[in-house]
Amino acid sequence: MSSKITATIITYNEEAHIGACIDSLAGVADEIVVIDSFSTDATVEICRSRGCKITQRELNGYGAQRQYATSMASHPYILSIDADEELSPSLARRLMEMKERGFNHRVYSFTRLNFFCGKPIRHCGWYPDRQIRLFDKRYANWNLRDVAESVIFRDSVRPQPVDGDILHYRCSTPEEYSGTMTHQAELRARVLAAADGSISPLTPILKGVGAWWTTLITRGGWLDGKEGRLIAREEYRRTSRAYSRARQLSADAKDEA
Questions:
Q1: pLDDT in tens, 41-56
Q2: How many CB atoms neighbour CB 109 within 10 A?
Q3: Fewest C-beta in 10 Å: which of 57, 58, 83, 117?
C-alpha cells in the first residue's frame, strides 16, 4: 500500500533557493507546508505559485518552528527540508520507490552533502552529515531547542538509512556564510547563558581554538583547501562569539537580579 508524504519547510527571505527546493520535491511530496517568518522578498509568492500551503509565524526558535510545521501536516509521514536544500535526483527516486511500496520504518535518515560557495565539502565534519529528515509524526517529533534542534523518538525506534544525498547550499559568498554564523552564535549564546555555571574570560578563546582545531585538523578540513580554512576560521569566530555573548548576557542578568 502506497504512503503519502507532507514536506515541511521553514523560510525567511529565501527567494534565491526556495524554487529549486520545491521543484526537487516533485513526485515525492503530496503536500508542501511552508512556515514563513514574514519574508520581505518574493519567497511567499514563489511558494504560492507552486501550490504550497503557507502560514506566516514569527520565528521563536528553530525547533519550535519545525514542530509547528509538523503540526500543520495532513499526512503522518513528514519530510523536513530546509529552503536552501534540495533532494538529489537519486534520493528523490529512492523516496518515490519507498512511497509506492509503503513505508515499513518510523524514522529514516539521509546523508547531506554541504556546499560552500558552490564547492562540495567532504571534510570539516560536513560529510556525511547524516540527518533524520523523514519520520512518522505519530512516533517522532522535533525537540523545541532554539538551535541545534533534532528529531526525537523512543529508544525502541531505530532510524533506517536511505541511499542518496540531501544537497545543502549553505552560502553563495563567504560574507553570507559569515552572517549566518553570527546569527547562530547569538542563538547559541542564549542557550549557554541559560545553562548553569559561569563562563571565565578565557573560555571564549579556548573554546574557539578548540572548534578551529577540530574543524581543520581532527575533521580534515585542510583537505578541502582554502574553503576548509575559511570554514575553520568561521568556526573559531562563531564559537568564541557565542561564549563571549553568553558571558555578557549572564553578567547582565546578575546585574538586573
A1: 999 999 999 999 999 9
A2: 19
A3: 58
